[in-house]
Amino acid sequence: MAFQLPLLKGLITPSAKERKEVEKVTGEIIYAATKICADAKPQVCGSVAKDTWLAGKGEIDIFILFRDSDKNVLETKGLDYGKKIVKSMGGKFRIAYAEHPYVRAVIRGRKVDIVPAFHTHEGELRSNVDRTPHHVRFVLANLGGLNLDVRALKRFCECLGIYGSDLKTEGLSGYLCELLVIRYGGFASLAKASRSWKAGEFIDIKGYHKEKPAKFSEPLVVIDPVDSERNVASVLSETNFFILRKALREFSERPSEKFFRISKHKGKVRKELAARGTYPIAVSFKTPDVRSLNGPVFPWSVGTFSLPKNHLSS
Fold it and tell me: pLDDT higher for 5 or 105?
């Protein structure tokens, strides 16, 4: 039988039971947040709001939107509200850091991020996370029932090890997956179109620019539909761009479910090292306080370990 995306439903689409659980917890959080956040509005964001999350990964993003506040008040009140919401539901939390601190919690067995942000109009930006509610609205208005295609692309990237826009993975974010599916009208169409991709590929869904602005030099440039000066694919590394392109081309030529199954290479690294007669050296250290680094830990660690690497190379 020829491969078709519906064959993946059981693998990538949340079950009715999971949906019910996620919707129940989300509803309870919004109810608690509405009572606690006197001068702010809670909103569900992320893949749960857009119904594009992968089976087994129903992580909930709650944004606390402040209309009139400065950044210090936003951070102070946002954290305070987040803590109170989690405590009111008997959950556990820790403080995480991005552009400003937010609450990362586990409530009823579900991972939950509670993020303070400014309530803004589209095109207005007071902090980077302010775009997120606009992203939700854009995707909901334009996805056109291609939820399974988005899930397929996310799983496809996950199996390649390039799903995630963190600085360690340097891959595709969930939002980027959604935009690519919207742009090409589905996963299969995206795979076919990737055959003509070249480094510096330029995608501008809303047509903000007549040509690619010179300031964008990344291998893939996807203009954010809610921010004409932002490349949604800015984190995607050159290596991962070519990994994605190659895999999409291979899928378009010979569609198969194997592209959506994570391959296991147990013992492969050990065998490779034995054949080469080399061995790894591991260095461990205590994670420093991120506030003292003025930024994320991973780039700091990469920079730190580039020193001995460069020394040994020379």
Answer: 105
